[in-house]
């Protein structure tokens, strides 16, 4: 009974949420003025024009280009002798507005509203672009390759993609998400290559979002992910237009969100999170080596400390005698068991990592020095941790930085802690139990309903060309099976 | 709960899955002490002969598979046997699957107990293994079967660890003699029976039939997997013969694992601990698959196959298996022997299922075809 009432209440709130800011009043000058009441940046100006007529211009001055207001609207309208004022305006994007709700929406998007004495209302776009210039990517830097990256301006981002894929088949579908933020969301795909079923799934997921705010791309991803409780990201997030264009060409979907320089790419696999745009710049042998190094580093970063705990707690006999002497000598005066020692060090490491992220750049260098030398050395000298563990923690920390995807590298910590507990209880079989769980979990995940752990499970041999190793690009003649593209061949098989 | 479907089908598996499944089902617990039971080097030919027999059996199995309407799943089987008969077969299947499932978990726990944690109560291992199996099984049959490919990739490389045993001076061809028996063996059938039972397991692929792409040539991939398994059996037996020699082979328990103990690297010793741990992938995959099959068999027997599958049912079956494991361990386990009463039961059960299921399916299919043609 309690639950039923609770569910009914939630449904009621959800239903009303959509209508929270809906205006049911009639369109009039009073209602327009009421709309900007108590808004310091909201302005309404009355102007007399020819034939003794009056118009009222309503706008939000912080959203529009004030310099263009006079030359594009006020001056042309002043001398207008036409019956319909909008015919005097040079702008081609003038919209006739019939409802107050629409008027509000357009005004908040940077339109200027013109209300005449006959009750007609027009909206003229005069948005202040407020854009920063296209700059180099800060999160995914590459040495050789395109230097541009997305900005907060969604139209500019679409331009960057259109320049790379000058196709009429590159479709852009617009959505609005979040009833408070009314965030503009644009889904891009190449018609004829992208699978319509996957496009439809994405379309439905975006349309279904019923929430107050979608501030940035991660908010959107949270609503679109198939498995919200998983620690693994099911969308790739990038600010590189070259990567988005490449994914679009392979039959994937790119989603741009207004006011954020990051795009979402889907469907992806777990292994895409280990790929870097640089992989396609290097020679294929070098690229393959670097990519496999990333996989090894990922495993090292999550397994090294748990293995240390497993070996020192349960399986001393695995370690050769010479190394065992060094280990015993290093651990002989420690007050903690390997588990507590490992846990303590990992915990401290995470604090340092998090602190260095939150600090200004200059301070974080100092922090790194203090953390690395002072805390590390002092901890050994004080007899809290062994020298060997300090080395291993350092190696694991550096290895974790090799994972190109920041969101994935952040999951390492949680996995490490879980494996640490399993290792302390069950040694190596415990770690394998953890691995089984992780792989079974990854096997169960999907990204826009496409298997997340392909090309291993399910086994897509075709996709192994660009997996642990990166084959020479001319060999990659087919699009990845995982994206389920409509047109699988990458080379043009026609006469042209 | 409405969205929770354990036996849902959204994809079809190809040749890679067939190879992975058959190979893993053939290389289970028995392979670890089979060389001890065979002992005599001339039984290398025995493995080969039983391998060929197994191939004939797989031919029958693939024929039956090609006759069946696999896409219909339960209804396909019901058409073949009739609803009533199918319920009886499913009821008998409960016992067979339960024996195999318990045998897998008990066998693995026994190995871990002997080689890694001699002082640990095996009950804890049962619990952990069943927990992870339940987790995998709860994702549904499709994902469980898919996990089989992951398990295959995580375990198949282990055979490489045995390469050093084929390199002189450790390996001497004289250790393989006599290749022709000098006298009469007292129980020649026992070794052969054991090989046959070890090679059993592919018959369970019929439970995964609805998820297998019917267009592919099943026989080819069944044969490849069987060929790989027979090759590995021969390799492992030869390695044991080289390392221990015939006289000592009969005295050592789990020779396949024990010989790995002697491998040393500059960084690791006692590699068998890592190897046994990694083998958990294979055991857990098959146990999860059997757990789901057991749940399915119970549902068919109880005439509730058309009702929605639920987590509670699966958890109930898992708990039931866990209780069985505790009881079996209490009454049959911890005897320190590889072949106790319980494993003998699996030996016969595996032999019979591998012998009867393909033939039974073939006969049923032929009868049905004849009936429909009349």
UniProtKB/TrEMBL annotation, chain A:
InterPro entries per the record? Spore_Ger, UPF0353/GerABKA_families
- GO cellular-component terms in the record? plasma membrane
Bilayer-spanning residue ranges:
253-274, 295-316, 388-408, 417-440
Concerning its family, UniProt says: Belongs to the GerABKA family.
Its subcellular locations are:
Cell membrane; Membrane
| Organism expressing this protein natively | Mesobacillus campisalis
- Family matches, as Pfam families: GerA
Q: Does the keyword Transmembrane apply?
A: yes
Give the keywords, sorted. Answer: Membrane, Transmembrane, Transmembrane helix
List the membrane topology term(s).
Answer: Multi-pass membrane protein
Top-rank taxon of the source lineage equals Bacteria
Question: Alphabetically, which GO biological process terms does the record hold?
Answer: spore germination
Protein name as catalogued: Spore gernimation protein
TrEMBL record, chain B:
Q: What residue intervals traverse the membrane? A: 12-35, 41-61, 88-109, 115-137, 149-167, 193-212, 219-244, 280-302, 314-333, 345-364
Q: Name one Pfam family in it.
A: Spore_permease
Please indicate which superkingdom the organism of origin belongs to.
Answer: Bacteria
Q: How does it sit in the membrane?
A: Multi-pass membrane protein
User: What's in the keyword line of the UniProt record?
Assistant: Germination, Membrane, Transmembrane, Transmembrane helix, Transport
The GO cellular component terms are: membrane
Q: Where in the cell is it found?
A: Membrane
Among the GO biological process terms of this entry, one is: spore germination
Q: Which PANTHER family match?
A: SPORE GERMINATION PROTEIN A2 (PTHR34975)
State the family named in the UniProt similarity comment for this chain.
Belongs to the amino acid-polyamine-organocation (APC) superfamily. Spore germination protein (SGP) (TC 2.A.3.9) family.
Identify this protein by name.
Answer: Spore gernimation protein
Q: Which organism is it from?
A: Mesobacillus campisalis
